[in-house]
Amino acid sequence: xxxxxxxxxxxxxxxxxxxxxxxxxxxxxxxxxxxxxxxxxxxxxxxxxxxxxxxxxxxxxxxxxxxxxxxxxxxxxxxxxxxxxxxxxxxxxxxxxxxxxxxxxxxxxxxxxxxxxxxxxxxxxxx
Length: 127
Hints:
This protein is mostly beta strands.
């Protein structure tokens, strides 16, 4: 059974930093692309960042470029999202997701392309 479990969310002041973690189990982690997506109150879910299985390729939404960094540790079956210089508009529930389609070789940015999702972790940025 595939399971993705996020952690690390919470309340942070604008300008602060938070690191999210996503622990994966039940799949060959190193062969899947992983991503972080978010959903703000009243808004659609959106792409934030993605990484290939090797970690050699990453991609970010324009709104987070230069502030967020996605990384992974295949040995620990974990993907991370380091978030810096946080803004109130970063407030959202953050989800990690895994895509099996391309054996981890392709960056996946489409929200509906991901096959498995975590339950989400909430990040609230106060002004």
